[in-house]
Amino acid sequence: MKIQPSKWLTGVALGATMMMALVACGGDDPTPAPAASAPAAAAPTATPKPAPTATPRPVERKPAATATPTSSEAAAPAAPAISFEGKTIRIVANSSPGGGTDTQGRVMAAFMSKYIPGNPRVVFTNQPNKPLEYLYAATEAPTDGTYVSWNSTPQLAFGFEEDTKYIKRSTFQALGSTIDPTRSWMTYDPTGNLGADAATKCLADFSGMSSTGGGEHGQFLLADEISDISEGNPTFLASVYASEQLDIPFKYFAFDTVDTNAVKTMWARGDINSTVRSSLWYRFPVEHPDWIPSGLMRSYAGMGPGTLRANAQTEPHCPDVRDALNDEQDNVFNSMMGPTNYASKSLWLPPGTSDEIADAMSAAFEKALTTDKDLISKYAGVAGEEPGWMDRKALGDATKENEALLQGSAAIIEEQKNRLLSKFFPQYLGG
Q1: Distance (Å, rounded) from C-alpha 346 to C-alpha 395?
Q2: pTM (predicted TM-score)
């Protein structure tokens, strides 16, 4: 997958400069189990304040191209002479069972034994506590190629946090990633939850309204994981910031787990009506082919970092959220959304793993995900799109580049974290 110029890239870089001047399924999970937390509700919205700095509009990003398979045995990049014969390769997803990361990973893992040199046993398992999995992979996991992290996003922010010992993601051995991470704001049953007018509107159309004008909820209700809210995850903050700046009627709730299955369950129960996620827009035509045509599901905005593209059924219903933001707001939004979302569904080996092992493993995953027609078809069936492989070098280079951008944006992110958590989530301050 070629790295394309990003809409957020120029804005983040300029903003940073200004602020600096100022398988078989199963197996035991080797990482410790996470502690559960109780759900909590967010406070109501308030009048937005202007963003702190101004920058020119960033350059628009073009969607990345997906790989085209040739044959199930097509040639892949040459790998070093190394073998994992007789070993067990453990692929660990930092997600709960049943979600998108888990499902896509299990499909992938089921094919990998025949591609990894020596045809080892491949086991897929989960550790949904992302910081614990990250820290285990960084400090305790074996470095012989038998432990592979399969992550929803690169989690660059962990490299700047005390809980994860400031271990940078760039110290890991990148293997590759599979999915365009561009996000969409999607609302379930907009007419029933938001009112009759919601069937044709977009997110910015609700700006300045105290209510959506009808429906069971009368406002956009969303949920994120307690850990992401309490830690001020930049992706979560970006969505809250955009909602605040557009002055739309919204409320956020916190839950222990907010994966794909949890979101659908909460929709069915009426707990929430919206979500901001990357892969669901592409998955719905496969999993729920009647939802979009019937109006039960509507995309209210593209949420970056790239440009939301058409799924198998339709073009996006509404424009990018940044089209409704001014230059100052755009810079702040991009600083939070961009660097942490440059890749999705990525594979990593622990720091200290040799290049020889990393090259061999990366070549195996690349060959499987770009040439095996059966795997590609099955992956597309659960993801809604074929894997678009970003290779080892591209992912590694992008990781270093985006870590630098994230560090340059640290002042903006910290300011917004303190402000937004204090305003909407005071119950999470102080840990």
Answers
A1: 9
A2: 0.69
